[in-house]
What does this fold into?
Amino acid sequence: MPEARIPTQPGNVSVPPRNPHRSKPQPSTPYQTENFPQKIFTEKKDFSQTHGILSSKTFSGEASGLTIRDLAKRAGVSVATVSRVLNNYPDVSTETKLKVLALAKEMNFRPSAAARSLVTRRSNIIGVFFLQDHVNAMILHPFFQEVIVGFKRAVGAAGFDLLFFTSSRPADRHFSYLRHCRHHQVDGVVLMGVDRGDKQMAELASSGLPCMSVDVDVLGKRAGYVLSDNREGGMQAVRHLGSLGHTRIALINGHPTSKPTHDRFVGYRDALEDLGLPYRSEYVLYDDYTWEHGYASMKTLLDLPEPPTAVFACADLIAMGAIKAIRERGLHVPEDVAIVGFDDIEFASMVHPALTTVRQAKEAMGRAAGEALVRLIEEPGSSPPILVLPTELVIRESCGASLVRAR
It folds into this structure.
């Protein structure tokens, strides 16, 4: 059946009063959220926009072997004039500037990375930190793979390369993310899947190094973050299940201290209230965002005296594990238990039944993080942004919507 897509409406992601029940996750610090601040645009910089004075010894064509002296001779001007044109100085006539730039393009002249680094005192390298341990190899997770594609495109268009770091919690108690960044002289860093409560993360966020995080709220004087409107996405999932007639709706959630987990729980809780359904603590389970967690948690839910008839799984991998557990009990999805996931990874449409899920704009999240980080690097006085992107509900087979329509 074709997918039906219901986009959420952007709105303030305000966190309602905390539910006193012990199963609700307790965030370690207050969360700050803003929806859709002004859009960040990053124009691709050409070599004429670098800053500093370049000499013929340090400015050469990357592939052609041309030097700035060759360009000056061809243009019939001095080396100093060419340098000032390439560095976009204002005290050069428009006629001369256009002539030099046209010849540079014709000769395929580009500054070498080494030369540009000497002049600008930048490496043009951005560091990338992923969490990697025995449970969560985030670089392998389908969600982050799509995020990094968007991020790479954004920073690549601005002339930056990526350097991937390990963050696998080494035994060395003196390990420091900031020290790694300074050692490799990165211009900025992006964080994905890291532990927001790690003291080393706090050190990095407060260092002044330009920093953006994705799907985790690391804040600092030069550190901002990008995430989805997780509360609204959670509400969309649960409201949809309620519209199909379900009154016993469970939640299989992720890490209890993360902001996405917290916000998806709030969306679940608020949607239950909107539907006039009671909150049942035995229906809410936490662990991580893995297939194994979904499988184990679903078995726990099916063992209850009154098991749920529908489950909101806060990740597609969780949902797939839950479907496996349901089938092993001789039950069927969606006839016996309806499932809605979160993420819309590539495999969500390939499994059977095809997974109804809340889609995150994964590549757009990466692109927004990349554009914001470039802005922080190139404009030292700019403020780190907090960006919240909308989600959309993608209706497929696992929720049972087609069964309801067929009645």
